[in-house]
Known about the structure:
This protein is of the alpha+beta class. It has 3 helices and 2 strands.
Amino acid sequence: QKRKRSDQQNRYLWGVVYQHILAAFREAGNAVDADDIHLFCKLRVGKLKQVLVTADGEVFRSVGSTANLSTAEFSNYVE
């Protein structure tokens, strides 16, 4: 079993990292919030995309969760 990220890591991500990215997006004229930045980073930075295929072959695209990352994986994501 892997250790989950700490509350301190989570606060740093949302309170520091995402805030800097959010400011850059807003400066570029985008009307976004922290949740938009979180989704953007999961898709583009963390590469947490998932493809799910149903039993009948239907394909769904989804986004994975940063909550499932270990402390080491989460540190790499934040970097």
